[in-house]
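Service request form, structural biology core

Requester: graduate student, group of Dr. S.
Request type: structure prediction, single chain
Budget code: on file
Notes: please return the result as structure tokens.

Sequence provided:
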Amino acid sequence: MHELIQDIQESFVNEKLQNIDYANDLYLAMCNIVWKKGDATNTFSFREAAGIIADLRNQGEMYLDFYPAMICGTEKTEGTITNEVREDLRKIGWEGTDYTFSNLTI
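Core staff response, request fulfilled:
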């Protein structure tokens, strides 16, 4: 199991996932992002992230309920981290980095 998922299950974030808007935002934040906490690094495919969100919500949903993101009228796409999700994951010790630039040395 990914460490990030275990931390979500054991924190206040799991309860916030019952809100569908938050669940969609967390799905988007899990895609194309490298999540790090200490020595742990977690990445997720779009389908994997969608399945995890559906499982965590325990509402009888499946990955297709979240993937692909089709949030009409917004700029949100996979790889978008809202301020709320970023701050919540920071509170449980995780930092996200855009996957595209995660291996870049400047």
